[in-house]
Structure formats: structure tokens, C-alpha cells
Design goal:
alpha+beta, globular, 5-stranded antiparallel β-sheet, single chain, 4-stranded antiparallel β-sheet, 12 strands, about 300 residues
Length: about 300
Amino acid sequence: MTKRIALLMGGHSAEREVSLNSGHAVAEAMKAMGHEVICVNDVNELKALSRHDIDVVFNLLHGADGEDGQLAAWLALEGLPYTGCNYVGGCLSWHKHMAKTLVAQQGIATPDFQLLNKPEQLIVDAAEGPWIVKPASEGSSVGLNKVDHADDLSEVVLQAFNLTDQVLVEEYVAGTECTVGLVGEVILPVVSIEPAGNLYDYEAKYNSQETRYQCPAPFSKAMQRQLQDDTRQICQVLQISGWGRVDFIVDESGRRWFLEANTTPGMTATSLLPKAALEYGWDFKRLVAEIIKTGSPDE
């Protein structure tokens, strides 16, 4: 059945370009399926539409615009069907320290961290490095940095506060980074990541041609199942539903570490969810169709 779909894309966050790239790809897939697509930049533009003519809102706003729970709360109040998790799942996942704390309480390992509300709160022990410094609430690895030496940590933290008002300083875990996506009740195959350089940051994700991905990942089948089981448990704990992605590192000893959860994954040519879906047997158009179903109660 064809639908009239409001596609939220772009927005005003640091991830605007990623959102636009995702949106253009998804819009083409929707049109190929015969849907009517209305591309909308933000909530104000959505409010200007005739709401009773919208069958479903497809949320592709990356960053706080679409992922911190506020958009989901408004859509629910307005009675508009939408893709993605509810406001609770959005809020818990968006605030990385909250997600890590809740997941750790379930016995799933996550790197130790400090949450800083101001630079002076940083506690440095030179014996504990290296560290990962990143905004406590941001996506697409915006503002992500690895710090090897204690002497440099304070300066990197100070720079991070130029981007955000809360900074996460996290223990660095060496290993293979990987991700597991979900769509509806389906947990997708594991994708492993070999970044250009030694860090999977914004540059490695979106601009480098040297980052390598493998799906299925080069882990044992038992390890892949464990990562998928972790993903299902984490999504239950964080109340993530609809679609999303959970990121991990598997260290050299085979221990699995939860990094963060993403409730509105990228859908660009280099994005991870489409790669996993293709291994599962869904081309890009089928993936988009399955995501639409999660926001459409009648299907």
C-alpha cells in the first residue's frame, strides 16, 4: 500500500550533511516503491503540514534534532505514527553516560568513564591511559579524539567543551570495533570495522576511502551470536525499538565491550546498517520498506 510519508532530514545539528545524504538515498527508495515523499527539514516545517494527510513520519534527523527523545515525545503527543524508538529510548541512548551505566548494571562490559560538566572536574592518572574524549551527547563520532599521553588530556578536554556542555572521558579499549543493527524484531548480522588510521572517527566514517568493513564479521559464529544477544538485551534495557544500531569493541582476549547505541543510524553509501541488511538478504529498498513498517501500526 502506498503512503504519504513525511521524511525528516537535514536539521540543524553537526550531523546535518550526513542526515541530508541519508535522506536523499531513502527518498529515492521510497519513490521507487510508489510512496509520496514530503522532505521536511525540521519540526517547524512538519507542523506546517496538514497532519491528517501524513501516514507516517520517517525520522532521519541525526543529532539532537531527532535523537534525544524530544521529537519522539512531540510526535507521540500529536498522534503521528513515526519510525524509531519512543522518547524514553531516545533520551537514554542519546546521553551516553546514562546508556553505559544502565547497560553495565546488566553485567555487560563497557569502558570506564568520567562524565565532565566542566573541564576542572577531570581527574588524570597517567597510568590509566590512553583515553577516548567525546561529547557525552552527540553522534557520527563528532568531536571524537584519542589521547595517548596524560599531558595532552586536559587540552583535548578543553577543546571538546567548545562543542558541548558535557564531555565523556573514556578508557580506551584496543580491539576490533563492530556494530549490530536491528529493524523491528530482526537482529542483523555483525559488521566489523577496520578504520583508516587508528580511530573510527568522523573522517574515517564519511570521508576516507581506506576504511574497510566486513559482513559477516571475522569472528567465530559463537561470538557473532553473543554480540547479537547483547544487542537484543541492550535494546530492551534502553527501550530501543523500531530500528537502531549498537556499537561494540571486541578486545584481543575476546571480551565484548559496549560503546554506545544509535537510534537513527546513517543510511548513506558508506553506512553500516545497509551493509548488514544486504548480508541478511535485504537490498536498500527492502530495508527502507521494513523500517517504514515499524512506524506503521496497520502493517
